[in-house]
Design a protein that fits this description.
Order of helices and strands of chain B: HHHHHHH
CATH class of chain B: Mainly Alpha
Largest sheet of chain A: 2 strands, antiparallel
Shape of chain B: elongated
CATH topology of chain B: MetI-like fold
Strand content of chain B: under 5%
Distance between the termini of chain A: 55 Å
Structural class of chain B: mainly alpha
Number of helices of chain A: 4
Order of helices and strands of chain A: HEEHHH
Shape of chain A: flat
Number of strands of chain A: 2
Structural class of chain A: mainly alpha
Largest sheet of chain B: none
Number of helices of chain B: 7
CATH superfamily of chain B: MetI-like
Strand content of chain A: 5-15%
Largest interface: A-B, 44 and 64 residues
Oligomer: heterodimer
Number of strands of chain B: 0
Radius of gyration of chain A: 31 Å
Number of domains of chain B: 1
Helix content of chain A: 55-70%
Radius of gyration of chain B: 20 Å
């Protein structure tokens, strides 16, 4: 009886050891892959920025660039005032006639493309299904 | 046959719509035709895969029944497979339509028709507020289509439940 328990304990410890080894290897590979990706995508790149007092400093690209995300978005926000809301919106959507036409065109393109895709995909889906493909 | 159709679908869906659009604009000139062909080809690839996976999950017994009654391969597909996969196909198709509305508003960027050309003008003339207006338009359109397709799908599912 005790021999069986001892054998079990030994196998269990062996299995645990193997699992830990696998975990360590996979973690190492993932970390290496992450560092390679970060390097390739300039994640750790250093860039120069001008501070508020005019002096230059070195920062990570991410830290230097993130505030500019808001800058771009802020530019796209139109000048709307509550008092003149109607005319402000009219200015914002001044090209609405062209846009409405193009929107119709966009939806029609999407519709036609969907029809084409459904026809092509529907026909090809039967020979491409493993259980239905003819003359296997 | 299996190999051929699978590779075709893979090629059709791995190449991005924009690349197809560029090629078709080169062939057929600027206009909606190039956009329709480009998105249509990509859609066929993506939907073909989804459909064929739906086909692989069906119950095979109706096929045996049709075959035992003397049906050909086409009869098996028509009377045993299609009725089983139709609801799946419908929901995939509606999802794809929604994706295509977005895709076709981008595809105009390379001259293949649609709202994308306005995006391009707005960006190159730095009309930043036009960008937000176009974004609002596309958001509203996609929302409307989403609601409409959900209603349509529920109606079809309701029909299934009653029948």
């Amino acid at each position: 009886m005790t021999a069986a328990i001892l054998a079990f304990e030994r196998d269990f410890a062996e299995q645990r050891r193997r699992e830990r080894l696998t975990f360590a290897i996979v973690t190492l590979v993932l970390v290496v892959l992450f560092l390679m990706t970060a390097e390739a995508s300039n994640f750790f790149k250093i860039t120069q920025v001008t501070l508020a007092d005019g002096s230059r400093a070195e920062r990570w690209v991410l830290g230097a660039g993130l505030p500019r995300l808001g800058e771009y978005l802020a530019k796209t926000i139109p000048d709307l005032n509550w008092a003149t809301l109607g005319s402000d919106i009219a200015v914002w959507f001044a090209r609405w006639r062209i846009w409405a036409e193009l929107l119709l065109e966009t939806v029609l393109i999407a519709f036609m493309a969907t029809v084409l895709g459904v026809v092509g995909g529907f026909i090809l889906s039967f020979p491409a299904a493993r259980n239905l493909a003819p003359n296997r | 046959m299996l190999w051929l159709s699978r590779r075709y679908l893979e090629i059709a869906r791995t190449v991005p719509e924009l690349v197809f659009a560029l090629i078709f604009v080169f062939c057929f000139g600027v206009g909606p035709l190039a956009g329709v062909l480009a998105i249509g080809l990509h859609t066929a690839g993506a939907l073909g895969k989804l459909y064929s996976e739906a086909n692989e999950n069906i119950d095979m017994r109706p096929l045996d029944g049709v075959k035992a009654a003397g049906g050909s391969w086409f009869d098996q597909i028509r009377y045993a497979v299609v009725p089983q996969v139709l609801p799946n196909i419908l929901s995939y198709t509606l999802l794809r339509f929604e994706i295509n509305v977005r895709a076709s508003s981008i595809i105009g960027y390379v001259g293949a028709g649609g709202l994308g050309q306005e995006f391009r003008t707005a960006m190159s003339y730095q009309e930043y507020t036009d960008l937000s207006a176009l974004f609002v338009i596309i958001l509203v359109t996609v929302t409307v289509i989403d609601r409409a397709s959900e209603r349509l799908r529920h109606r079809v599912i309701g029909l299934e439940a009653r029948a």
